[in-house]
Amino acid sequence: MCGITGWVAFDHDLRTELPTVDAMTETMACRGPDGRGTHVDQHVALGHRRLAIIDLPGGGQPMSVPTPHGAVTIVYAGETYNFPELRAELASRGHSFTTRSDTEVVLRGYVEWGEAVAERLNGMYAFAVWDTREDKLVMIRDRAGIKPFYYYPTPDGVLFGSEPKAILANPIAEPTVTADGFRELFAFIKTPGRTVWEGMREIEPGTVVTVASTGIRTTRYWSLETREHTDDRDTSVARVRELLHDTMRRQLVSDVPSCTLLSGGLDSSAMTAIAAAQLAGQGETLRSFAVDFVGLTENFVADELRPDPDTPFVHDVAMKSGTLHQDIVLGSAEMTDPEVRRKVIRARDLPSGLGDLDASLYLLFKAIREHATMALSGESADELFGGYRQFFAPEARESTTFPWLAGHQQFFGQGRKGQDGGSPAPARQGLLTDQLSAALDLDHYIQDSYHDAVSGIQRLDGESELEWRMRKISHLHLTRFVRIWLDRKDRMSMASGLEVRVPFSDHRLVEYVYNAPWALKSFDGKEKSLLRAAAADVLPRSVVERRKAPYPSTQDPKYAAALREQCRDLLTTPGHSVFDLIDKAKLRQAVATEAPQIDQASRRDLERTLDLAVWMGMYAPTIKLP
């Protein structure tokens, strides 16, 4: 895993811009603590920071290969899991290799197949190739959007980077946020291609972006397509099991210490059990890690989303699978440390408002990094197999908005369905000023985005109304919702130089399970029926029967008290730029209570306020509103 950045300028000599290129590259230092490199020529500058995972001595970048008509150079971030097969195929076609890295395989694959190399890759990747044979830049992102990739068109070329901060380090890119940027920030819908920053674009998953002197061209090499599923239940379960074992085998390949993230839920437990068995067959013991909070297990209070604490289930899995397990136990003082908030905001380049969900993940990864460099995560399984409550909730199935917004106002800002029974209630505005709320008009933005998102979904001939509704819900989760969480996991892990792989995002598994009918995905009346059946033989009974619970959140009253106190401190600086966005009177009222706990909606309001304050101070964005 690495960080990449670059600059193409067809009307400018970039050999005079090395200090700027170095500054862009250094913003990626956390993503690549093991090495750095740059390649600068007249019209191109490439920067790379390396986190060494495979072929530690031989995978340095930028990497070039000569051809009879000019050199081809790559900067690459990610992992290609089928690189051994591709390497063998390329060798049979006359290519010779000087390293054992997957980067060289991808580079020589581009020399052999051009942009079509993307169709042959299995993995998570974002890479850019400068092809001197045609004086063009080719940027390619993985199918699921696991690895982030951004670009910023300029009058004579483009800037690009793994994260916005790399692009914003170039004076050409101005840190400006318009109403559309704030809409994307507050709506919680992750529109493909859009970013918070004006003029900046996200390379969409499964897409190739080519930059030449004639302009920028975008082509799609993969999308989530509707296909008929003809396998019966037993065959489907067997195929899911087969794909899981093959994916895990591929993704366990590493030249550095590895582990799994274990929550005690079905997804991470199945992943951990399979990985542990495969490593045991090689005489190795798997390490596993879990996050916990001081006093949570002993004093746990069930709520609407979380029926039980994770730790007992985590320990059941660790014992049955024989992992070397460690709980990372966090306290409220750590998670409310202003410096931790700053590091989270810096890692994400935006104020997510997720608070302890981000802070605890960052601290978890920081602790894991002391023991391992690569971790496997169960991310994407809920979206793929149908694990969230909104897959079953009538208000989500019947609503005309994104299913995770229907009936979950306290978490994502959208109300329950309206009085007409189908339309969603107005979006919750929280502590935003009335002027900003009116300018954003989030209700219409969300509705327009929803209709645009569902318009391209293909319906299977003869598909029932229920199956069609569930196909749309599944598609939205796999093309919108999951990318919010994939981006979060990437940013929080790479901030500590930890590579996190996500086996449930393997495109073969996604294509297969997406097209399985809802009746198969819920055949036992529970969530994630196919996954449960495929992994039941390796899991403890407690986990097989456990009800879905999301990523844990602290219940310590000290956490809520610290949020209120920090917001009170913010109010003592009435001239802070955050109050261009946040209403001081609303914030003052929100922190007036001394109750030991606050509801989820109020807590998120305080988190977002503090995040916005840090972000405004750190990035000093120019705000352009109507």
TrEMBL record:
User: What CDD domains does the database record attribute to this sequence?
Assistant: Asn_synthase_B_C, AsnB
**Catalytically driven reaction(s):** L-aspartate + L-glutamine + ATP + H2O = L-asparagine + L-glutamate + AMP + diphosphate + H(+)
Q: Which residues form the Glutamine amidotransferase type-2 domain?
A: 2-214
Instruction: List the PROSITE patterns.
Output: GATASE_TYPE_2
One molecular function GO term is: asparagine synthase (glutamine-hydrolyzing) activity
Keyword ATP-binding in annotation:
yes
The EC number(s) this enzyme carries: 6.3.5.4
Q: Name one Pfam family in it.
A: Asn_synthase
Concerning Gene3D superfamilies, the annotation shows: Glutamine Phosphoribosylpyrophosphate, subunit 1, domain 1, HUPs
Pathway field = Amino-acid biosynthesis; L-asparagine biosynthesis; L-asparagine from L-aspartate (L-Gln route): step 1/1
Q: Which keywords annotate this record?
A: Amino-acid biosynthesis, Asparagine biosynthesis, ATP-binding, Glutamine amidotransferase, Ligase, Nucleotide-binding
What family does the Swiss-Prot or TrEMBL record give for this protein? Belongs to the asparagine synthetase family.
NCBIfam families registered for this protein in UniProt: asn_synth_AEB (TIGR01536)
List the protein's name: asparagine synthase (glutamine-hydrolyzing)
Q: Give the encoding gene's name.
A: asnB
